[in-house]
Structure formats: C-alpha cells, structure tokens
Design brief:
Blueprint: H1 34-43, E1 57-60, H2 61-65, H3 72-91, E2 95-99, H4 118-121, H5 133-136, H6 140-158, H7 164-174, E3 178-183, E4 209-211, E5 214-221, E6 227-229, H8 252-263, E7 274-278, H9 288-299, E8 305-309, H10 316-331, E9 335-340, H11 346-352, E10 357-360
Parallel strand pairs: 1-10, 2-3, 2-8, 3-4, 8-9, 9-10
Antiparallel strand pairs: 5-6, 5-7
Length: about 375
Amino acid sequence: MKQKFVLPITPPSTAEKKPQTENRCNENLKPRRLLPQLKKSVRNRKPRLSYRPELNSVFDLDAYVDSTHLSKSQRHHMDRDAGFISYALNYSKRMVVVSGAGISVAAGIPDFRSSEGIFSTVNGGSGKDLFDYNRVYGDESMSLKFNQLMVSLFRLSKNCQPTKFHEMLNEFARDGRLLRLYTQNIDGLDTQLPHLSTNVPLAKPIPSTVQLHGSIKHMECNKCLNIKPFDPELFKCDDKFDSRTEIIPSCPQCEEYETVRKIAGLRSTGVGKLRPRVILYNEVHPEGDFIGEIANNDLKKRIDCLIIVGTSLKIPGVKNICRQFAAKVHANRGIVLYLNTSMPPKNVLDSLKFVDLVVLGDCQHVTSLL
C-alpha cells in the first residue's frame, strides 16, 4: 500500500527564514492622515439646538447691541434669542436668503417704501408710478422722470460699496453654506462680491445670486434682446436738445442689422429700443418661469435656514417664494428669521406661518452676533 506523504506543520530548521522587514509595506508609502480630518469633522459638526423661541417672537436687535439701557434680567432674557440668531448664522449648512432694499441703506442707497424711500420722495410722493410699465412708457414726461431716476441710481450704486451684511453673505457663499440668494435689489452691490456673482441673462449653471427684479447695471433691447452694460449717456433726462440722447434710445445693434439688410436689398425688420434691465409693475417677467424652476429645485433640497431681510414682502411673487421656503425649512426643523427695521404686518406673518424670530433693527448689527 502506497503511503501518503504529509507535509510538516512547521518548516524544518534547515529552511531559510526571511527577515520580517521584507513582509512590511513599502516604507515610502505614507498612511492616510485620518486624525486631522476626524478632528475637523468633529469641529464642524452641528451642535444640538438647545433653545427655540415661540413662533413670531420679536427680538429688538438695536436695543441688544446698545445694551447700556438694559437691566441684567432683560439682558439675560435677550441673550437666549441672540444665541438663537448666532446659532443660525454660525451652524446652518444650507441657507436661503431673500433680500430687499433694506440691506443697501447703510451703503447710501435709499430703500423704496420707508418715509425716506424712493416711493415717498420722488415724483412728488408718487415714486411708485415710476416703476409701472404702463405709466413709464405711456407718457414722455414720465419716461423722462424714469430716466432721471435710473441714471441717478446707476451713478449712486457705482460709487457705493457693499455693506457688512453683503460681506457676511459673501462669506456664507464662500464656505459653501449659502444655497441661494434671491435678491430684489437692482443696485448690484451684492453681485460685485466674488462669491455672490450671477449670470446676466440668467442661465445654467445656476449662480449663487438670483436677481428677481433685474439690475440697473445693464440695459436690454426689446427686439433683439441684446444685453449691454448700462450707458447713462444714451438716456435723455431733461428737455434740452441733445442729438446724442433719446428718451427711449434706439438699439445700435438693430440699427447695424438694418443697414446691412438695406445694402443687401432685404426688407426692413425694424429697430428695437433700449431700456434699463429692471423689471417693472404690470409687465411680464422675461425670466419668471426660469426663476420658478430654480426655486422649485431649491425646495427639493434640505434647507436648514431661511433669512428674509430688508423687505416688507409687498410683492406677491416674492411673498409666495418666502412662504414655500418657510414651510420647507420648518418641516426640516430648521430656522426662519425675518430681519427688518419695522414690524411686518400681521397678514404677512400669518401668510408665512413659520417665522421663528422677527429681528427688529438695522440688519448690519446682526454681523456682530457671528
């Protein structure tokens, strides 16, 4: 019978043993540095929210910043709300901001609806008429006043600098914590900052800033839709004769096309007119559908903070956007802040439903809570 050969369990003593160093990993390979990443992850982790005020609670920001007149008990009570605001600003990961003219007042640009705003101080107290499409382009005298207003706002905004609040939003965008800024402002101070830039016209990829009402920085032809930087020298602002200006100037690109067509013996298609690229009342918003699409896509994301700032929400479309975002943030157990110099009307708060804290005062002061 053939005997099976069984291998020894251990190698014989005559076998040459290889040094253990040869079985080690190549010493040139560096291990992953997980500890610093782990520490960074722990440091950036969102802490648990320990306090939430009742819905529609009011916080006097100006009084808190200038706390010399507050008693210790008042200060202690307001510290909780201040901490709530600080938590929202420091730890929110996906923020949406809807801003109005109030954030640019500190830069020297007037708002619209206050007692010192454009609606009250321009056109004999009827400044709102200068933002009505039918009034502006239905009467030459109104067109002249509209040109005066647009040119003055353009020159004013050109000489102004972004405020501390603008800078704070820019930092949020830089850190990847600002999902979107929906701005009603036409001054363009926000889009001057590198991380709040936008596309004109609005296009994909979607920028950080969506201009809801256009911008005084650009003008557009109503026919060929060509967009150019705003040129104040083209718009007539008084009754004096000047061959270089028109009340509603013609589009140079359309005129050039017409010249080419005439030389080629083709029929005329007409010349368009230039206008500031600012959306007025009673006109169809050219980018309304696209903005609605952007907002709907943003609503699908896990937003954890909504900040409504410097606006009275008189525009129905803007109020509707805020209402949808407020409901979404509330469902996500996030934070909804409403920053304004005056108390919002009850019907606005009732429409929004889920405002955690109404912060009254100068929005620039909120940067001190970072």
